[in-house]
């Protein structure tokens, strides 16, 4: 019996050394969707001429997932995924925005895509992106959106407060299954390397990023 245990343990150690680890990093083409470190602090003005300061922080991390197991305890493969996060709010705390970009384990249909999520107060926009292509119906968190129906499109450029931004994600709410507050976003313009540049809230008030 003792010899059997020794053999099993030795076999397990050998197999453990054969575990394949694969690293999934966010694609360079998608990194531009996060604000440059010099653009994390900015000011926006609403339709009433009220100025609001926004402050964001950035962070990165890695997560690990394992595949099928040997002897029910030792994985045969391991994946390490990169995550990039930026989050912040306005001075009053009435607008809270966070974005997350995660390296995705690609499938055959959309190889090279990463997971992109934007949390804007109660709203959650989730999709997979590949450069300037968006696939909101291919994100594993679609059901987590709580019944949100929205459109997303890529704009080559968009002007706000006299400044032109190149590479802009335009999100527009169509319908939602649950009640929303006056600060719920109904339309968002989000620029590469800058982040939030314009938004309209459910109370019909819009905010515009100042140059």
Description:
- The chain has 211 residues and is mainly beta.
- It has one domain (20-209).
- Helices cover 9% and strands 54% of the residues.
- It has helices spanning 2-16, 28-31, and strands at residues 20-24, 41-46, 51-66, 69-70, 74-75, 77-90, 96-103, 114-120, 123-130, 133-135, 149-160, 163-175, 185-191, 195-201, 206-209.
- The radius of gyration is 22 Å and the shape is globular.
Main traits of this protein?
single chain; mainly beta; 13-stranded mixed sheet; 2 helices; 15 strands
Summarize this, please?
With 211 residues, this protein is mostly beta strands.
Structural class: mainly beta
Strand composition percent: over 45%
Distance between the termini: 75 Å
Summarize the amount of helix as a percent range. under 10%
Radius of gyration: 22 Å
Main sheet attributes: strand count, strand direction, barrel closure: 13 strands, mixed
Shape: globular
Integer count of domains: 1
In N-to-C order, the SSE pattern is HEHEEEEEEEEEEEEEE
Question: What is the average per-residue confidence, as pLDDT, rounded to a whole number?
Answer: 80
């Amino acid at each position: 019996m003792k010899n059997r245990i020794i053999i099993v343990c030795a076999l397990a150690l050998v197999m453990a050394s054969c575990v394949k680890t694969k690293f999934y990093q966010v694609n360079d083409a998608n990194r531009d969707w996060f604000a440059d470190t010099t653009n994390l602090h900015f000011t926006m003005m609403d339709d009433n001429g009220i100025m609001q300061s926004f402050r964001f922080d950035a962070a990165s991390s890695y997560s690990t997932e394992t595949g099928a197991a040997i002897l029910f305890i030792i994985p045969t493969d391991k994946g390490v995924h990169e995550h990039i996060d930026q989050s912040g709010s306005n001075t009053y705390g009435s607008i809270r925005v966070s974005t997350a970009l995660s390296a995705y384990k690609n499938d055959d249909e959309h190889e090279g895509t990463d997971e992109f999520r934007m949390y804007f107060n109660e709203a959650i926009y989730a999709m997979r992106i590949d450069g300037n292509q968006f696939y909101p119906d291919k994100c594993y968190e679609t059901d987590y959106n709580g019944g949100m129906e929205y459109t997303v499109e890529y704009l080559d450029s968009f002007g706000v407060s006299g400044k032109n931004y190149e590479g802009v994600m335009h999100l527009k709410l169509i319908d939602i299954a649950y009640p929303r507050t006056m600060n719920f976003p109904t339309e968002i313009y989000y620029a590469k390397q800058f982040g939030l540049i314009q938004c309209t809230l459910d109370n019909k008030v819009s905010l515009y990023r100042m140059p």
